[in-house]
From TrEMBL, chain A:
UniProt superkingdom: Bacteria
Gene Ontology CC terms, in alphabetical order: membrane
A family per Pfam: Spore_GerAC
Primary subcellular site in the record, as a coarse category: membrane
InterPro entries (UniProt xref): GerAC_N, Spore_GerAC-like, Spore_GerAC-like_C, Spore_GerAC_C_sf
Organism: Paenibacillus etheri
Database matches in Gene3D superfamilies: Nutrient germinant receptor protein C, domain 3
Biological process according to GO: spore germination
Domain Spore germination protein N-terminal stretches: 20-191
Family of the protein in this entry: Belongs to the GerABKC lipoprotein family.
Compartment(s): Membrane
Name the record gives this protein: Uncharacterized protein
Keyword hit for Signal: yes
UniProtKB/TrEMBL annotation, chain B:
A biological process from GO: spore germination
Family: Belongs to the GerABKA family.
Example of a GO cellular component annotation carried by this entry: membrane
Listed name of the protein: Spore gernimation protein GerA
Swiss-Prot/TrEMBL keywords: Membrane, Transmembrane, Transmembrane helix
Pfam families linked: GerA
Species whose genome carries this gene: Paenibacillus etheri
Residue ranges crossing the lipid bilayer per the database entry: 275-297, 317-335, 367-388, 400-425
Amino acid sequence: MRRVLGGIGITLLLLLSGCDFKEIDLRIFVLAIGVDQGAEEGGFKISLKLAIPQGDVTKIDEKVQILTEESPNISEALRRMKSRVEKELDYSHCKSIVLGEAVARKDILHVMDWAVRRRDMQLILNFAIGRPEALQVLQVRPESERIPSNSLILAMSGQGTESPFISSVYSFQLMRNIYEKGIDPILPIIEAKGEKEFLINKIALLNNEKIKMVLTPNETRIYNLLSRPNLRTNLPAHSEGVMYQYYTERSSSHYKILTPEHGKATIRYHIKIKGILEESSSPDLVTHSMLEKIAVAGGKELEADVLALLTKIQASGLDPFGWGLHYGARHFNNDTEMEVWEGLYAGLDFQVKAEVNIKYSGLIQ
Amino acid sequence: MSVQQDKHNVSLEWIKDQLNGFADLIDRTLVAPFGQIDLLYIKSVADGQILSRNVITPFYEMENINAYHNYILTYPGTEEETTREKAIELLLSGYILLGLNDTFCFFDAMNREISGVNETSAESISQGPSDALTEDIAINLNMIRRRYQSTNLKMETMVIGDVSKTKVAILYDISRVDPNVLAELREKMNTLKVDILQAMGELEKFLSSDSLRILPKSIVTERPDRVVFNLSEGKVAIMLDTTGYAIVLPSIFNDFFTSMDDKIQLPIVGRFLKLLRIIGVCMTLWLPAIYVTLTAYNPEIIRVQVALLISGSRATVPYPSFVEVLLMLMMMEFLTEASLRLPKAIGPTATTVGGLILGQAATAAGLVGNIMIILVSAVAISNFLIPLNMMSLSIRVLKYIFLFAAAFLGLVGVVVCVVGFAMYLCNQRSFGQPYFRLFFLDNLGKKKGGEH
């Protein structure tokens, strides 16, 4: 009996469909996809960045091929591109989709839907907006790059640079943020600076289909500080006419939505930063009491910056932090809570408390 | 003391008739003033020196035949047996038949051509004892007794093989051994019917009936300290004369990955070494299969950098990856086997020719990828981490099953095979003991020597 059951089990397991047999050297890996607006109205211009592996590993020389095809729809463009290469296009290693700014300003839903729906594309690929066009971003080849498109992968995944201005968005996150009530998607913006360099230091706030607002680099940093823990950055503090910069060794931010029975609904942010002094415009000795003063001054400046960003976001009517989701999760009037929230949102008040603690002056004298 | 011999059963004539055609049969009569004795022995198995010193010289120094008879009986090996079969057996094993008046005595003058105690060759360790079991059972028993000085160590002897008459000793610690195992073993040994028993492996084969089994269920070892260690764990050791190895049973999967080093080293180091071996087994079993899966079915599992690297290294390879792997693995097996059979003096040539030139040339010619060479070497090296040769060979064969599953079914095949292998291991029993259990003893603290 056991034997029979075991046999049946194994047979059923073997009936599972695996993947097709296709040698790795007969596949060509697509590492990035760029989606731009086509010349025709409603059409797409799809660009694929293909990695060409080299036989000789000792001779480092990246080889890339970029294919571009215009078509009224994405699938058609990809199928047409298949007959322009000799190997099978493999999307399993595709790590980024770059949307042209024009597409992102019009409608991202179509592309997002396609990327999530396609079975051989992973849900952890990075979505970004390319400026001025996705194709130009794909064409960027930094000098330091050794593996095709590696720089884009490293920058967006946080494995390489830990820039405080970059925030990455996976396709599953994008989809979730679009369809979820009470949270709006964001997308990082990659700007191509010539052939050899790109710049990622802004994020775009979107409503559920297109770009509504673009944050400045400084605002992007504040956004990152509020949305993830332990952001490593420098922040300014002006005390007694001297400019200081401190490095945030640890940071955390929490918020509470207060809805008192009388009075306005308030979001209270509480930011905690543990920092080290990094730069000072005066050569004077920094004493412990001065450190405390600098910390207080830094906290004040940060509070002002955060408040400015929060009010700006509120004015746009967007909700990239997911306050609405947070509100809905803590209230149980399930049928009406989102309407209540929408009523509350425009009149929200913000309170920001930044607790900066600079523990070390950076020098021992 | 002296027992009257049954003339109907044993007679000099009958024995001589039985041993007719033996060129080395010596039949003599010694005559002294007080009487005479008959000597009958086989020259090649009896020791001439013992004979002249202990039998012939005293005979001429004695006063009468009874005193001589009593003197002969004082030797511990002397036997006075009655049956015909026993008499022939004793003569064949090197005893001397003494005909005194009407009685017969068998005097032990066995000539033992033994090899001295050698160093271990197959299971060598860096520190610790290096004595190996010899081909003489008496010396082996001496080595075991010296290391296990307990009255609980019991020994049973029997003779197996209708022609070879191989002496077999079964050793166990009566206070620790599982009586069921012992009973099962005795039953199997008693039903054993063979003509020639010369190697431990043969006996091992007879003891476990399943002919399709791929994993060894009893350890064949040449290390007396391993035998002693296992005896202390309550296992049974079987020793065979003329082989130089001992069988230890019941043995579980884990036992095959225990080296005698583990107890010599510091505990953490010992555990680390064991972990290394387990990782080594996993590598040698699954690396070829995983390579095939990753290159032919699911390249999305590995990082893009590695995928491009493999893709690049395979750019010139004309065959699909599993042919490539199979080719190189076979090459490696040939190399291992060849270097085993070659005389010691030219052994290194095989490794140089095979390893260096073949590997280099194959990649240079573009027949196999660079990464493939690394993989095959890793598989070969990690296979040799397994301390016991029998298990090492089993694992060597098993990896092809995984490879074929990977070649035809991809990752699903590998997963099915791993699940199947785990089920197979769990299903196995070694003399009633679950084969895949983690430790042989349930409570490690209670019995000394049970520490893994």
